[in-house]
Amino acid sequence: MSLLWSGRRQRDVVYLMSFGDNVPFIMALAAAMPADRQLLVFYRPSCQSAADELVKAGIAVRPFTDGFGFVFTGISQMMRARVLFCDNYYAFLGGLRHPKRMRIVQVWHAAGAIKRFGWDDPTTAHRSASDQRRFQAVYDHFDEYVVGAPAMGQVFVTSYRASLDQMQVLGYPRSDRLQDRHWVAHTQQRVWQQVPALKGHRVILYAPTYRDGVTFTPPAGLAQALRSDPDARVVIKMHPALATKAEDLQRQLGAQGVVADTLATTDLLTVAETLVTDYSSVAFDYSLLANAHSLLFYLFDLPAYQQDPGVQPDLLDWLPGQALTTNAQLATAIQADTATNVTQFNQHWNSANDGHATERVVARYVALLSD
Q: Which range marks the domain in which residue 133 is found?
């Protein structure tokens, strides 16, 4: 279908948004663009609040879902793009005719990777040949990848069968705010206003990854381990699909458990003295915050998770601290409250996430609009 519009001149910028945490970058991009060029953001319905922010800033947005409606209304606009930003894997790209002048740029939604994906996912080898061709057709459309460190570039090389020269180590724009002391201070005040029970206490945030297609059941006794520091307050933050599990665990925490359902995980990271996570990318964000004290990896299901979906083979080499696999180990780590040294961890995954990624990424791709 994209052949119908393949002859159009590529002049504008299109951003495909399925994660709503890159709004400052999109606004900076809009502000830097030439007056005769347009920016259009297509967004998934789950990003409605982010889209509303963009509308207030005068940026054109369009909702989209996969289907014929988008094919007939969205593809025609997308084919005008000189630069097409993607923040995720979008299956429809596999059927798109890639104009020579269009630069398709992957601005991934996480600064690092613990889980395997793409060709590195053990389950991919068991998919049909047609599925594998379809996956690679999407991967082949990406011309460049914006990454925060060479380590993430290598992940894309193996996961998407990309080449190293496609990697642009410019830093992730979404990471800039984590090192903006004004944004952090404002966010902390907002968290304390909305959840005053956290003010003045050690905050322990438990934020596990979403296990796609897997029934996640927190181990018995986890709540007791999480409340090992009697003076701390514990917040549970899980994927919305696991709301019932989160509520059950929250009840088990008793008086030490604090409900903060209205706040995003990133907001809560700014007040957390201790983050307990597993395979989630929140670890890469937390390690950039000045308030980050202890980063604990609670990998109770590591043997099974190594099989499906799999973890990076060198995980234990760069993990900052011990892989905690039992409630007793987690309880001991919480009680010890030892600061986690994240220096090498950040050198590995966040080397270009220095608070100035937005200006570098904007400069690179706005420059393409003048050639």
A: 2-174+355-370
